[in-house]
Amino acid sequence: MVTVGGHTVPRTGKRQYALPAVGGGTVQATLRSRFGDPYPTVEANGIRHRTGPKVPVALQVLTLLPIVLVGIGGAVGGLIGALGVIANLAVARTRIPPAGKALIMIGIGVVAALVYLVIAAALRGAIHQN
Prior knowledge:
Helices cover 48% and strands 21% of the residues. The chain contains 3 helices and 7 strands; from the N terminus they run E-E-E-E-E-E-E-H-H-H. The protein starts with a strand and ends with a helix. It is an alpha+beta fold. The protein has a 5-stranded antiparallel sheet, with no helix packed on it. A two-stranded antiparallel sheet has the order 1-2. The chain is elongated, with a radius of gyration of 20 Å. Strand 3 (11-13) and strand 4 (16-20) form a beta hairpin. The protein folds into 2 domains: 3-50, no CATH class; 57-128, no CATH class.
């Protein structure tokens, strides 16, 4: 859902929206997102506008860190890693200072890894119990 001034704007296509123009009417805009960036950009008339502040590269890396569980744990690790990335994206959008965000994101990564280890151990125990 995209809003302008508290009002929802109509979707006109895939990632396309009709934004209200200053002089009346509408302007076609495209919503674009970059992997690891918690804020999408809006492109209107060939000009890109950020929807939030620039996020330091270190925080972008920490945001994506839980997805490493895909390589370690396959589908189960990927699911847990994706949930960790979603949580980190939410943290990246907060007004907490960058150092605080980094600590929280590292904590989310550790918790994701521990959850994976617990689930993997339980699955392994259930499979090898027979």
